[in-house]
Amino acid sequence: MHKKLLLIATVLAFALIAAACSSSSEDTTTTAGSTETTAAAGGEATTIDFWVAFSDEARLGFANDRAAEFNEKHPEYNIQVTSFSSYNDVFDAAVLAVDSGEPPALIHFFEAATRQALDAVGSDGAPVFKSVTDAIGGRSEILGEPVVLDDVVDAARNYYTVDGSFYSMPWNTSTTVMFNNMDMLNEAGITEPPATWADVDAACEAVMALADAPKACITWPNHSWFVEQSLGQQGELLANNDNGRTGRATEVYLESDGMMNYINWWKDLNDKGYYTYTGIQRDWDGTSNAYLAGEVAMLVYSSSDTTFFDENADFTNVASFMPRNQDVDYVGNLIGGATIWMLDGMDQTTEDGALAFLNFFSNPENAAAWHKLTGYIPITKSAEALLADEGWYDESPNSKVASDQLAAAKNTPASLGALLGDFVGIRDIITGAIEDILVNDVDVATRLAQANTDANKALTEYESLYGG
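^ thats the sequence. predicted structure below, dont judge the formating
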């Protein structure tokens, strides 16, 4: 099978992606500037299509507003934003558009499919995407817009740097944090958010002993991303060749000590009635609703919704680092979220406009505004400094927790996260195994052994076509 066709088949088979995917079922084009806009010299503006995987009013609105501002500032260009219902849909459409000869300039795609994006080729065998490092070519500004690439925070910069090249421009970047109902915890005699697994156990024992105890003590979505975070914390690799960083990953490790530690702890919480499973895989809405309704005291979740919880909790909501294994040294948490990839093969005028927009989009003011709107981390160090100078973190201390947690990580392959072929398919295998363990009381070691076999089979099949 041709590599492109395999990629399309792989993308079509991807499972539903986590929180960043919207619920809209239709693609929507929202033009931030008319295609009839004329350039300063009197000619027609160069249209730059930007395809995004957000369709909610706030996040899509942010993209449209920035596009409109750029178009006004650079009337020779017209950034046109098109909304898709998921990362899968936007990527699939982009790959098909390459062969039709009408691809977008920029697409928004999530971190777990970085390896797939790097491997993507058109029918002519040429790469679909171009490294932004190569495209920028050492320039410090493009069309008057300062280049921000060197200012990107380390965690995101390091994740998306492959073979020394920074491939895509980070946009929505998150990590896992814990949100704590301090009113409930204080009532149970817990004065600080739990920092370790042992602290969580002790807090849950106290919470569940309350006369008005909630249904359970803690929850988080059943999603492989949380497993990956815990492996990073414990300094454990998900895959060989340094998590696919020093060579292509050809084997995954789902029976490692770190994996066993985390899943056994998770199951123990569930067996004691401390953890509540909604019964739905990747249930972001169900778990967040349980926390806001006071059905649990703690929620481990994506930092991307920090602003949402601050605005909607009717109790004292305090964010803290994701709880870690107290029996091993802490190495670091890793990122989630998505970046903006630039397609290869554009003429120089269009490419320069796309690059200028990418850097404008993440300039300090825009990166800070995006962070305030959502809770995704400010993607550049200058944006962090701007927020600090404005007093934002004094006003909203929960908003700084994710950035602090990522900054605390050591720069190791474990804390960077894996580059892995068919990563989403492997995530589904892990998530399904966890559900089996929680719901059907299957032995952890036995079930992870089966998951390990299945995951390595999926990876081997992918590598047989892409590994060279």
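Residues 3-174+336-399 form a domain with the D-Maltodextrin-Binding Protein; domain 2 fold (CATH 3.40.190.10).
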